[in-house]
Amino acid sequence: MIRRNVFKAILFNAVLAFALQAQFTVSTDFTAMYDDNINNSSYRVEDRIGQLSMIAGYEWGKENTATQIAYTGSLSYFTRVLDRTFHYHTLGLTQSRLLGQDAATDLSLGAAYSFRINREYYTFYDHSQFSLFGNLKFNITDEVTGKTGYTFRALAFSQLPDFNYTEHSGFAQISFSLPTKTSVIFEGNLGFKVYESANFDSANSGGVMMGAGRNRVAASTPTVTQLIGILRIGQSITEMTGLSLTATYLGNIQKESRYLSSSYGTISDDEIFDDHYAYEGPHGSIMLSHLVNENLILRIAGGIQAKLYSDRPAFDLAGTQIADQRKDTRRYLTLLAQLYVETLDVTVSGQYDYISNSSNDEYYRYANNAMTVTFSLPF
Predict the structure, then answer these.
(1) Which of 92, 195, 221, 275 is most buried, by the most CB atoms less than 10 A from its CB?
(2) What is the pTM of this model?
(3) What is the C-alpha separation between 81 and 125, in angstroms, rounded?
(4) What pLDDT is stored for residue 212 in this prediction?
(5) HSE, side-chain direction, 13 A CA sphere, residue 234
(6) Contact present, 333 and 313 (Cβ < 8 Å)
(7) Bridge-partner residues for 285, per DSSP?
């Protein structure tokens, strides 16, 4: 009996010590958006979207380690095109560990599972994703920092299994902090994407309905290898103002992206999922940030990106092919103001986005204006 009570006391103290070291956090965001072209196409459809999201995290750790379990869930409600309403969920586990005698090396490992669910008419967007990652950050000198990492992803579409793929990507980064209050970052990324299914014969593949009746009639080859080079320069202008310049180039070493073509045009997984493997080309951007005071941030950003699509022709609005390869030029401008209201413990942000996309595919010639207001409230 004494031993049992001693064991209970030890267990209670261990649980109590764990609870004292742990921290539970919850925050919610509510976003209201007006978008005058929600489909990003020449067929302009405007809508008002409300998004409610919640982040819940539980973190515990010791002196040089920290572990976190986090859940993120969101509901996006479309008021005009109601069928586009969907919800998205992510559950992740991350562990960070400081290494070395001076604890100057940071190792992060993590895993996450997420899925998206849409209404019946747009179920071709439905997908699930499992990912693993590992990052290592270390100091080379007092002014030079290195970082490297690897990510594995497996993504599956419930209605479009031909787009299911696995991805292996790695990166290496080196950062310099100069006496002129300038930071310079060089980064290289190498990604390899492999579709799970082999090529199919379009003549025998049957039909898969997408959106407004798009039928599958053709497919391309199933793998892509992409090399990305990134240069970022940050400059402190004053104590409250900073300027950032970024130059990126995406180059496809192996240009075999998959697409589905129809009388409505050509569909690829960069439309139903944000997939940068579908195209290549340069991208330049600039951002100016100003801290008015400790609670108010103002920001303006803009950029231009050229997209040359691999193995993807261009069509007119009648579905007739007019070029062997689709080419886009995307220009954008973003204005942001973010205010923290200390008395209410609420962060309010307002954002305006303008996008102009020119393309030799008539469906993708469009302009887009979006205005967003977000309220963020921690518990």
Answers:
(1) 195
(2) 0.83
(3) 15
(4) 37
(5) 11
(6) no
(7) 246, 303
Q: Report how far apart, in Å, the C-alpha atoms of 76 and of each of 56, 119, 205 are.
A: 18, 11, 34
Going by the DSSP 8-state scheme, the letter that residue 85 receives in this structure is -
Distance CA 346, CA 205 (A): 53
Question: Which pair of structure tokens corresponds to residue 157?
Answer: 């579409």
At residue 72, the 3 state secondary structure works out as: strand
Amino acid code (one letter) for 120:
E
Cβ density class 185-195: b for 16+ within 10 Å, e for less:
bebebebbbeb
Q: What is the dihedral of CA 302, 306, 309, 313, to 10 degrees?
A: 110
In this structure, which amino acid lies at residue 246? T
Return the structure tokens found at 207. 């039909």
In 140-240, the DSSP E strands lie at 144-157, 165-178, 182-195, 223-236
Q: Cα 309–185–178 angle (5° rounding)?
A: 155
Beta bridge pairs of residue 227: 190, 251
Dihedral sign of CA atoms 84, 152, 68, 97 in order:
negative
E-only strand ranges, the chain:
23-35, 47-61, 65-78, 86-99, 105-118, 127-139, 144-157, 165-178, 182-195, 223-236, 241-255, 259-262, 265-268, 279-293, 296-309, 314-315, 321-323, 327-341, 346-359, 366-378
pLDDT in tens, 227-249: 999 999 999 999 999 999 999 99
CB 372 within 8 A of CB 353: yes
Positions of the chain with pLDDT under 70? 1-22, 199-221, 257-274
- Do 186 and 230 contact (CB within 8 A), yes or no? yes
The first and second tokens of residue 379, run together, are 């518990």
Residue 303 belongs to what H/E stretch?
strand 296-309
Structure tokens at 205: 């593949």
